[in-house]
Each structure stands twice: as C-alpha cells, then as structure tokens.
Amino acid sequence: STDLSTGPEPPKELVFSNITETSLSVSWTKPKSIVTGFRVTYTNTGNGDNGSISVDSQLSHVLISKLSAGFSYEISVRSILGTIESEPTTASVTTGVKLQAVIPTEITFSSAVISWKAPHLAFRSYRLTYQHDRNSKEVVLNPTVTQYELTDLAAFSNYTVKVDGEREGQYINIVSSAFTTAQVPFPHPTDCSQVQLNGVTESGEVEVYPNGKDGEPAWVYCDMDTDGGGWTVFQRRVDGSTDFFRGWNDYSKGFGFLTAEFWLGNDILHSLTSLTPVTLRIDMQYGNDTAYARYSNFTVASEANHYAITLSGYSGTAGDSMSYHNGCPFSTKDKDPNPLSIHCAKAYMGGWWYKNCYKANLNGLYSTFSQNQGVVWIDWKGKDVSIPFTEMKLRPVSLKRITPQD
C-alpha cells in the first residue's frame, strides 16, 4: 500500500499590528506538530506586486516592509516541514495612508469646521467620526469632499475626530485630531434670551439662573418661535387642566406644568424684570382668530411692594387692556393689598393686578362665560368671552426684533 503523507499542520490566527504606510507586522499561532520553518507571502490586490519571506521555526512573527501606502494586501502564512508546505492561512490587511493633519478651524461653542488634504490615493468615500464622552457620530462623505462642518456640538467639551478613507469595502484610518469647543457666551443664562444666544433654537423647558450663577436655578419654558424668539413664558392657559383660583403663596412661588398650564411665579417675575428693561408680550387665540399685545416697558415689584405692575408702550392687535392695571398691586383670594368694597380676586376667581376690577383677567376661570369670571381681554373679545388660549412672556428690550408685517 502507498503511504499518503499529508503536509504539516498550518499556522492559525493571523494578527496584524504596527500598520504604517509602508510596513506592517504579522504574527500567528504555531501548530502543535513539529515544523522546520514558515513561509510568509504577500500580494498587493490592487497592482499585483508580491513578495515572500522565510521565517525560522522558533519565531511566530515577521515585519513586512517596502509596501505601498493605502493598498489592500493578501497575506498568507504556511508551515514548512523539510520540503513540504502546509495549506496557507490567509488574511487581508490595508496599509496606512498619511494625510496632512485634520485641522479643526472656526471652532465655536456648538460647531467646528474639519478640513483635510486629499491623499494621492483614490478613495470611494470618506467616513468622518467625531466623539465626545461616549457619544459618537459618523458621516459618510463623497471622495471630493475635504471639509465638513460639525454642528450641534456640546459647549466647552473635548472632541476627537477621525477621517477614514474607503477602498474596496475597507476603511483605512487616514488621520485624526482633537479639539475643544468654546465656552457658551452665557454659562449661567438668566433668561430665555441668553439661552437663545447660547445657540438654542427650539422652544422648550430650560434651566436658567434668574438670580445669577450662585442663586437658585429655575426651570422655565422658552418660546423660540414667536417674533424672533428668546421669550421667557410666565403664563399659559390652554385647556383648563390647572386651577388658577389660588392663594398668595402659590402665586408667589408658581404652579402648574411648564408644557401645559402654569404661572411661573411672582418672585421670579420680580427677578427677571429687575435685571434689565423688559418687554411684555401677550399672545391670545380664539378658534382661528389670534391677537397679541406688546408693552415695551414692564416690571413687577418685590413682594414687599405687593408685586405691583408697571407697564407702558402698548402696540399690537388685541387692544390695550393692560394699561388700566398699571401701578396696581397683585391680589389673590386670601390677600388684597388694596381693599375696595368688592374683593376683586374673590369675585373674579383669579390672582391678578386687579383695580376696579379689570379690563384683562387672564388668570380667571377657564371656559366660564358667566358673571364675567372667565379668561377675559375686554378690548379684544369683550367681557362675555372666555379666551381658550393665552400666553404671557417677557424678553429684554435690548433683544429688539422686527415683527414681520403681513
């Protein structure tokens, strides 16, 4: 009978390391059986260049040099026993490619422009990956692009960015860099106008510092859509889900839900209107009918002065119902600093700057059309219509916006 001699056992598990533009190391796991050496072959799958290296049986790694940058190579390692070679163990690897550095420029608190020089190699696409903490994002770009603007970044944060080039389905790391975004203009914004200057463009709940960075922070709702945005909303009526017939303490501290119905609180109103000259805006809606009133000057006094309101400079489409209340103290069902024969807050079921008693009653009973107790703006809908949607908001006068004319 003929003795069929099988070849030696092949090596296992090729591992690549120290990959540069022109060289790389390959290592493998030796077979358990005896071998007299190894043969390593490498072929450039792009242009067919190839080579071969003999390795002593004691070793299980070799450095392959004089390779071409940015090409895919097929590497095979065979065990040798005498003159017999094993089956090859094969894997693919791509050499590195050097770009001139990725350069982050035009760095702001929320954006940066990343540029890189195109290498001489033809890539089918670039993949740009940027990371901050554990948050990683990637974009795939066509090969003619060598600049990209990153947006919606976190302020005052460290980012790493790397650019990979894709050839033959494989990504080659071209270059990486790091940068730190700028500090926002207002790390402790006092109101929604500063939140807007920090780059926030969508309406929603935000934490602000009405009494400075060492003061108690407060959550507020910012309207970034109306008349240029930057408005801190302090009152909203929309569905009757929140009771507004409340006592002095509730009106001082605020109540309700910022995304639904609420009163922000007279204490914070005093803080926000004391920092800088403030504009008041009131938006109202009844069916498809909308109206607004603006007052170019608006302040709310301290609690010691009963949160008295000062306003002037009306403009708008709703009619001027608030000027009647100018100079009036705030009153609630349990506290009337300016008692008349009639207790307005009790009679008209709200907390407000009542006089005798009102021309506006935006904290009145929701959807109540009797006894003039509803949500009323007399100069717009009269005293017998309860307005289903109201929003009161403020913004520094210095943030003047031009209201687009229809």
Automatic annotation (TrEMBL):
Any one of the GO BP annotations: neuron projection development
Stretches assigned to the Fibronectin type-III domain: 10-100
Entry's Gene Ontology cellular component terms: extracellular space
Alphabetized SUPFAM superfamilies for the sequence: Fibrinogen C-terminal domain-like, Fibronectin type III
Domain of life of the source: Eukaryota
Domain Fibrinogen C-terminal: 183-398
Keyword Transferase: no
The entry's keywords: Disulfide bond, EGF-like domain, Extracellular matrix, Repeat, Secreted, Signal
Cited PANTHER family: TENASCIN (PTHR46708)
Protein name, per record: Tenascin XB
Source organism of this protein record: Astyanax mexicanus (Blind cave fish)
Lineage, opening ranks: Eukaryota, Metazoa, Chordata, Craniata, Vertebrata
